[in-house]
Amino acid sequence: PPWFEQLTVQLRHKVLQIAKQVALSSGLHQLEIKLYFNLYCSSNFVSCLQIASHLTELVKIKAFPPTKLTEVGFSTCIFRFLQRNTEPTLGELANTEADQLDAFLLMLPARPSTPHPLPSPATLASEILLSFANAYFEGNPAAVELSLTSNEFKVLLPLMRDPNTSRPALVVLASLAAGDQLGQSSLLKEAMVLLNHSELSISISKDAEDAKRVEHLSLYIDMLGTIKHVVARNSSLKDSFRNSGGFTWILANIKIALAAWVPATPRSESAPNGESRPEPSLTASGISPRPEQLNPSPLLLQVLFELVTTLGVCLKGNQTSKDGFSWGWFTLNDM
User: Fold this and answer.
1) Of 71, 108, 266, 273, which has fewest CB within 10 angstroms of its CB?
2) Is the pTM of this model over 0.90?
């Protein structure tokens, strides 16, 4: 109702706490959920955040299933404020309504203490909206299908490249992928495009302490871990991965990472008879390079681990993929 937005942030919070008790004791009717929809679509940014946080909590405690939100039209605005090409941007709104936003954020549960600086109010607002989106899509196949067929999920792509929002955005991606029952969306293909070969090569070539290198390799690790997780949960995505050129893509990345991890020109040492012999390298025989020859970067090793285990998950239990990957073993042996 219009009066809700005219209340202070603190009073709105109290109203929503009462609404939570009502929802838990007697449930919510469709008309009442429609009121939430109208408030979420309101012009008041902080009011929208409060509704998003409130509905996330209600869905998590199973006050009602997220399918009821789909029935009143939430799919049309679930990514509201998260689109980077809209005016005003989320960051601009956070600055414009800074006092109200700060008052709302102070009401949220305290975050676990970490050595890292606290996220900005705009980042915290993004996390709230992404948490709501994840609660909305999880176990809600109708909402997943609407988002995938309309390509609205592409709103997540720039958020996944942003170190401030990549992890919560990847959680939403995982919920969408897990609900892609036919595995026919372009979701995995779009995710693979984000992990650009040339960027990986450039990042690896930088100094081990370079902030951009750490940021980009961390993105690779998180993204690959997400792909591996969703493919393991949703077997139909194994066909989607293969049909999207996933094997070519993953082998190209393995080649780049291996080239950085193992020196291109190994040293030679003398054999007992005085002849020179090549240093052993990673081959199909399982002979590994000497430890002092390896690039010691833990991040690089983690990238390699995620690439190889993602490949294994995509092949496991899918005979078509195993047959189609027969050429890939020769490529791996050559590496």
Assistant:
1) 273
2) no
